[in-house]
Amino acid sequence: MIDTNLTGIFILSKHMAKSMMKHNRGKIVNISCIRSKIFRPNMAEYAASKAAVVALTSAMALDLAAYNIQVNSVAPGFTYTAMTAKSFDDPKIREFSEGIIPVGRIAKAEDIANTVLFLLSEMADYINGETIFVDGAYRISK
User: Fold this and answer.
1) Which H/E stretch holds residue 61?
2) How do residues 65-85 score in pLDDT, each as one tens digit?
3) Mean pLDDT over residues 15-28, rounded?
4) 80 catalytic, yes or no?
5) Which CATH number characterizes residue 43's domain?
């Protein structure tokens, strides 16, 4: 889990940053998770790996700022994907999940993708070292 969720991001970001440094510009968007801040039992390794992505994002943002490279991350909350469909297609699980999310719905993949696209756009040129939680206000309701 650490290899996939942290080491893979670190290696990819490190190599992409080298190329971006030559051009004196670039953007990196990492994917974390609400589990980097809100925990459940039996998720220590996953939570640690996603929290480390948040720390890596902030540290790399500082290291690369002088090269006009912004590094940010997105932390999705409950999101309907092929991987979560089995759970969220169960009416009881879906109703419970939607009931604890203040906006009242589970995120669509497009909700996450649109946030990544924003961070990659010129509109986000002054955002650096941040983690944006795309969770329908779930994190702040806890």
Assistant:
1) helix 44-64
2) 999 999 999 999 999 999 999
3) 97
4) no
5) 3.40.50.720
Nearest Cα to 119, choosing from 79, 70, 78? 70
Total count of domains within the chain: 1
CA–CA separation, 67 vs 85, rounded Å? 41
- Token readout for 115 is 């946030």
In a 13 Å sphere around the CA of 70, the CA atoms on its Cβ side amount to 18
pLDDT at 78: 97
Residue 36, CB half-sphere, CA atoms under 13 Å: how many?
26
Residue 27, both tokens? 């953007």
Burial of 24 (0-12, 13-18, 19+ CB in 10 A): exposed
Segments forming the whole domain that contains residue 136? 2-141
Average pLDDT, the chain: 97
Rounded to two decimals, the pTM is: 0.94
* Assigned token pair, 87: 């759970």
Strand partners, 69: 26
Strand ranges (E), the chain: 26-31, 69-76, 79-80, 107-108, 131-134
Q: How confident is the model over 40-65, as pLDDT tens digits?
A: 999 999 999 999 999 999 999 999 99
